[in-house]
Specification:
By secondary structure, the chain is mainly alpha-helical. The chain has 18 helices and 6 strands. A 3-stranded antiparallel beta sheet has the order 1-2-3. Strands 4-5-6 form a 3-stranded antiparallel beta sheet. The longest helix has 27 residues, at 156-182. The N and C termini lie far apart (60 Å). The structure holds acetyl coenzyme *A (ACO). Residues 47, 265-267, 269, 293, 301-308, 357, 359, 362-364 line the site of acetyl coenzyme *A (ACO).
Length: 429
């Protein structure tokens, strides 16, 4: 990184010199930290369209070229050649593990998969039809109650252990949420299985009989988890960092991340896509729904389309689109919704409205169809996303603690309310 400066002149003639941060990859950035001190001005950027909130070494995106790198490695290579646990190690530690590091890491994750028995009692407090994301958010937040008093946030080893616990326990909590949702007994993690097999066993196994893991399903989940593991400073990761910047308990930070992920504009889109395909129902209805998506007076949006950063294509969507065909083929599933999704994609990609706005399918356009083929109910889709993204959230949370200029996140505002005025007593209003 080299530094030069940009000069700013305000309408009142005050000047400020702001350092320009130039990195090997990514656009040049003005460092505006001292702007207010130098000129009295703030900057305004609702939705953070042009604002970096932190420095990070973890994930790089070039939205114009459709590039996504985890620690420098292209997502296509990781999806093809790696596995979720290895990617987890990479995101957390910065390098791919060698064999003994990989064994030790897998072993450590495996040893933290159980949750306190009281979590089962906690789960039973929910109504049977509670949304799985509501249960997930609460259950992960409640883990803070078990891991708080003896945790020293200034101790790197305590922080690392919290990250390991979170990554390891997410599948157990997710499966418990699922079992509560469908009214079956909770299953304990089976440590002889790998990460995704263990999740499938806890979700679909029952105490009454042995459960045979379908390797196609375990592999498909592993791929989806790699693709969802991190995505730099998206809404939920920024939420985790903002909460983390206050020094809050890591389980509370991840619970906040889950809340942010739930929204249909973010991770909730995978659930929203399937609901949308259900609503469209048939190829003959596509034109009507495309027209609705283009109508500014209609709140309907084509879910799974568009992305703040990708303005050409989402490389994860390309991988997932292919995987979707492969997985459905291998599982022998014929899903009319896949046909519908493909036709919708084809029509939208040719439509002038979508072309002009660079609106392409994102990662969630196809992920729900795979989840559905694996027998996962629609309301669990975002929970699956949360399991994977916990790796990114915790890696970014760890990095934040290790970045020297980290301060509490405290955005400012442009105030547009009433000017100073005198209080009027009730009897005079
Ligand atoms: N359907 C129809 N029109 C759309 C869509 C869509 N899915 N997405 C964006 N547009 C239009 C907007 O109306 C706007 O049009 P205008 O310029 O005429 O006003 C233009 O495209 C730009 O859209 P913005 O909302 O300004 O883009 P922004 O970057 O703020 O939003 C977002 C990105 C939230 C992803 C948006 O495209 C969207 O709502 N998509 C559907 C939800 C979705 O799939 N979310 C998942 C994102 S990926 C993830 O989080 C894992």
């Amino acid at each position: 990184m080299s530094q030069d400066v940009v000069k700013i002149i305000t309408p009142e003639g005050q000047t400020a010199e702001l350092p320009v941060i130039r990195s090997e990859m990514g656009p040049p950035t003005f460092d505006i930290k001292t702007l207010n001190k130098q000129t009295g001005y703030f900057t305004y950027d609702s939705g953070f369209a042009a604002t970096g909130s932190c420095t990070s070494d973890i994930t790089f995106i070039d939205g114009g070229k459709g590039v996504l790198l985890y620690r420098g490695y292209p997502i296509e290579q990781l999806a093809e050649q790696s596995n979720f646990m290895e990617v987890t190690y990479l995101l957390m530690n910065g390098e791919l593990p060698n064999q003994s590091q990989s064994n030790a890491f897998n072993d450590e994750i495996t040893r933290h998969t159980m949750v306190h028995e009281k979590i089962h009692a906690f789960m039973k407090g929910f109504q049977y039809d509670a949304h799985p994301m509501a249960m997930m958010m609460s259950a992960i937040g409640s883990l803070a109650a078990f891991y708080h008093n003896h945790m020293d946030m200034n101790n790197p080893e305590d922080r690392r252990l919290a990250a390991i616990r979170l990554i390891a326990k997410m599948p157990t909590v997710a499966a418990t949420v699922y079992k509560n949702y469908i009214g079956q007994p909770f299953m304990y993690p089976k440590n002889s299985l790998n990460f995704t097999e263990r999740l499938l066993h806890m979700m679909y196994g029952v105490p009454a009989e042995p459960y045979e893991i379908n390797p196609v399903a375990a592999k498909a989940l592993d791929l989806l988890f790699i693709l969802h593991a991190d995505h730099e400073q998206n809404a939920s990761t920024s939420t985790v960092r903002l909460v983390g910047s206050t020094g809050a308990n890591p389980f509370a930070c991840i619970s906040a991340g889950i809340a942010s992920l739930w929204g249909p504009a973010h991770g909730g889109a995978n659930e929203a896509v399937l609901n949308m395909l259900d609503e469209i129902g048939d190829v003959s209805q596509i034109d009507k729904y495309i027209a609705k998506a283009k109508d500014k007076n209609d709140p309907f949006r084509l879910m799974g389309f568009g992305h703040r950063v990708y303005k050409n294509f989402d490389p994860r969507a390309t991988i997932i689109r292919k995987a979707c065909h492969d997985v459905l083929g291998e599982l022998g599933v014929q899903d009319p919704q896949l046909e519908l999704a493909m036709r919708l994609e084809e029509i939208a990609l040719k439509d002038e409205y979508f072309v002009a706005r660079n609106l392409y399918p994102n990662v969630d356009f196809y992920s729900g169809i795979i989840y559905k083929a694996l027998g996962i109910p629609v309301q669990m889709f975002t929970v699956m996303f949360a399991i994977a993204r916990t790796v990114g959230w915790t890696s970014q949370w760890l990095e934040q603690y290790e970045t020297p200029d980290t301060r509490i996140g405290r955005p400012r505002q442009v105030y547009r309310g009433a000017k100073t005025r005198d209080f009027v007593p009730l009897n005079k209003r």
